[in-house]
Amino acid sequence: MNRVEGHDKVTGRALYSAEYPAEGVAYCYPVQSEFARARITGVDASAALAMPGVLAVLSSEDPPELGEDVTGELALFQHREVAYRGQLVAAVVADTYENARAAARAVVVSYEPEPHDVRLRDDHPGLYKPDKVNPDYPADTEKGDVAAGLAEAAATIDVTYTTPVMHNNPMEPHASVAMWSGDGELTVHDSTQGASADRDMIAQALGVPPERVRVVARHVGGGFGSKGTARPNSVLAAVAARAVGRPVKVALTRRQMYDVTGYRTPTIQRVRAGVDAAGRLLALEHEVAEQSSTLVEFAEQTATPARVMYATPALRTAHRLVRLDVATPSWMRAPGECPGMYALESAMDELAVAAGLDPIELRVTNEPDAEPESGMPFSSRNLVACLREGARRFGWDERDPSPGIRRQGRWLIGTGVAASTYPARRRPSQASAAVEDGGYVVKIAAADIGTGARTALTRIAADALGADPAVVRVELGDSDLPYAPLAGGSMGTASWGSAVTMACEDLVRGDGKQGFADTTEAVGAAAKLATHAFGAQFAEVRVDADTGEVRISRMLGVFAAGRIIDETLARSQFIGGMTMGIGMALMEETITDLEFGGFVNHDLAQYHVPVNADIERIEAVWIDEDDDRLNPMGAKGIGEIGIVGTAAAVANAVYHATGRRVRDLPITPAKLI
Ligand code: MOS
After folding, report:
1. Which DSSP state fits 46?
2. Ligand 1 within 6 A of CB of 492
3. What's the burial of 428, exposed, middle or buried (CB within 10 Å: 0-12/13-18/19+)?
4. How far apart, in whole angstroms, are the C-alpha atoms of residue 412 and residue 404?
């Protein structure tokens, strides 16, 4: 199906958060900390307050009243301590955006700066083992004897990979318009990945009951994790609106987004592995060092895919975290699995080279019967089928494994492969269905962040109703609709689709007019199985032998992700994820400012993402996978599996082209030269 809201979007009728009209709206512009670690000794707002149109200045001089358990970046102006450079330390509310912005420069914040530490290193004395890693995994696991396995092995590797800070960069910046009614009810037009959860987080931050708050987000221009939790813009708009008694709009600039809307933690990852003469793993170890802020512990699950991927008698995974004077890292495009699989799948390629094996055969040889760490059976696992089908389509059999020997003019040519995996989960959701105006209307507080969720749910509902999708209308993006989990963790379609299917079935089996479903029980009763999507990515690159420029000539992804709901939407999701993986491999990097804290590059001029000109031939296909133990649709999530593994496939192809193994992303010309 084509996007049901496509026409509204291309004609500009689809409204995004900052575009909602509000009578008498005022504008709020934040003031950010100049220091990475400091104590605020005073905020002088007098000059700002005297400027044209200024209505109020908010700061820790007179902290806004917030909820008792507000934490982290949402605890606006509650403390005098600065935790990172760029943190919001004050804000100006004025009649126009320009007046607010001008007056923000006139707010004088006095600091007592302290020495800061913003550099992640794997020998940092502050590294510790977190209790859990996201979302709820043990930090460490260990079975068998890794040292003994490595000692026995015919071929081993011991390699360290590093990945930089990366930023989500949704096309639509974070923005909120907040308005309070006369009797204290709050409506926020917020750019969010989940209206229900956003409503709950905003209510908790403000210390008001959730039923007094409504979040509306009918259209969202991307999130990639950065809109999965409430950000300071929504709480700032709400407290500013309360302070001036008018609706208030906060629209963050791209530059501000870099500081306060999350990012992917940098990682330092060591992988040790060994195989016997037949290529069977005897030991695998994946150790990760990563960072969090002093405000909140965010512990990314980077080594968890090693617990899922390969059979080995000895397996150890470990996460260490250090709290630095930095903003809190957050969810970004397959958090954990994505950087973790870059390291693991690069290491598998290095191991294949060390053992003299084909990298596909090495993976097939180590295919497990059950989930390696837990021992649980897989609901379905078709990694081998993806690798085989990909090899056939890509022409892998003709590949000469020798690196650095294929040359076309100035270009060195190489190919690479990597596997991908992402958990298939779902969360409880509600939905309703009703007959209306000769058709059906389905209501659910789901979010369409540009992925096509509204369209996929229209198709799922039509299937369940036995109706033409043209007579089904899905309403989403409003916390007043039936409660739904967020668009995140690749579980939107599985979670919402289950509720939509059950609500439609309730309508059909009941009075034929109304249906409702709450999947809490069904989700809780699901069989305990290892549920994951799998895939294989193949890349062909050419590397300029003189300049080190890397171009991707061909990219192929083959996925096994349960039933595919809609071919058009799925292809778009997969190639979008793979395109982001190309960005991760070759371009995306935020540079930490070691001297002053914060980040050096703050915009799309200096933080590069792939554009159409960077993508030549890209293809995504999938194999039929029938898995009826997941959910009523038999679908696994497809939002994130496309990015997982892609960077490793590119890095492995760059090695094959050049003989140079770059273990530090992104693979820039400077590193190859
Ligand atoms: Mo995605 S990082 O699960 O929003």
Report:
1. H
2. no
3. middle
4. 7
- The residues with which 178 forms a beta bridge, in sequence order, are 188, 248
Q: 263 CB under 6 A from ligand 1?
A: no
Cα-to-centroid distance, 405 and ligand 1 (Å): 40
144 CA distance to ligand 1 middle (Å): 33
CA–CA distance, 192 with 393 (Å, rounded to integer): 39
Q: What is the 3-state secondary structure (H, E, C) of 535-590?
A: EEEEEEEEEECCCCCEEEEEEEEEEECECCCCHHHHHHHHHHHHHHHHHHHHCCCE
**Euclidean distance between CA atoms 406 and 542, whole angstroms:** 10
Residue 527: predicted pLDDT: 84
List, in order, residues 6 or more apart from 642 with CB less than 8 Å away. 420, 535, 557, 559, 573, 574, 575, 576, 577, 578, 580, 581, 620
What's the rounded Cα separation, in Å, for the pair 380 and 210? 39
CA distance 301 to 67: 30
Q: Are strands 248-251 and 267-275 parallel, antiparallel or unpaired?
A: unpaired
Taking the C-alpha atoms of residue 570 and residue 559, their distance in angstroms, rounded to an integer, is: 10
The answer, yes or no, to whether any atom of ligand 1 lies below 6 A from the CB of 225, is yes
Largest CA distance in the chain: 78
Single-letter code of the amino acid located at 597: G
**Residue 28: both structure tokens together:** 């709020």
Cα–Cα distance, 89 to 44 (Å, whole number)? 12
**pLDDT of 647:** 98
How far, in Å, is the centroid of ligand 1 from the Cα of 226? 8
The whole-angstrom separation of Cα 58 and Cα 44 is 11
Q: Which of 510, 529, 445 is nearest to 198 (CA)?
A: 445
Rounded CA separation 46/57 (Å): 9
Q: Is the minimum distance from the CB of 149 to ligand 1 under 6 angstroms?
A: no
Quick one: which atom of ligand 1 is closest to the CA of 223?
4
**Residues of the chain with confidence (pLDDT) below 50:** none
pLDDT score at 544: 98
Strands (E), 132-198: 132-133, 137-138, 141-143, 155-163, 175-180, 186-190
Q: Which two tokens stand for residue 139?
A: 């930090």
